[in-house]
């Protein structure tokens, strides 16, 4: 059985490169988790919520009013963001306030924005 790849002129011509890259590749499960994380950023409403939370910790009602959306729609998106560990929350009596989980979230968004503005 040949290891030749259709369209390649040489079989294993760069085996040293292939081996080095293969050794540095993360496990499939880690790559799956990374892809799932980036899917969360694939929704404009979630991006808007993250931008809102850049500025201030806020409750669902305030976010909904600011984005002119229903509280149920915002709650749903916050649940997705929370499951992805992008936002955290704290209770103050009956009120629940949301904020960014950590500085990594801002970095991811900032780098994405820098890329699209190039």
Overview of the structural elements:
59% of the residues lie in helices and 12% in strands. With 118 residues, the chain is mostly helical. A hairpin with a 2-residue loop joins strand 2 and strand 3.
Q: What attributes characterize this protein structure?
A:
118 residues, mainly alpha, three-stranded antiparallel sheet, 3 strands, 59% helix, 12% strand, elongated
The number of helices is 6
Q: What is the CA-atom radius of gyration, in angstroms?
A: 21 Å
Overall strand count: 3
Q: Overall mean pLDDT score?
A: 91
Biggest sheet features: 3 strands, antiparallel
Euclidean distance between termini CA atoms: 47 Å
Largest sheet, spatial ordering of strands: 1-3-2
The low-confidence runs, each spanning 5 or more residues with pLDDT under 50, are: none
Portion in strands? 5-15%
Overview in brief:
The chain is mainly alpha-helical. It has helices spanning 15-24, 28-40, 44-55, 60-67, 71-83, 103-116, and strands at 58-59, 87-92, 95-100.
Q: How is this fold's topology laid out?
A:
Blueprint: H1 15-24, H2 28-40, H3 44-55, E1 58-59, H4 60-67, H5 71-83, E2 87-92, E3 95-100, H6 103-116
Antiparallel strand pairs: 1-3, 2-3
Helix pairs in contact: 4-5
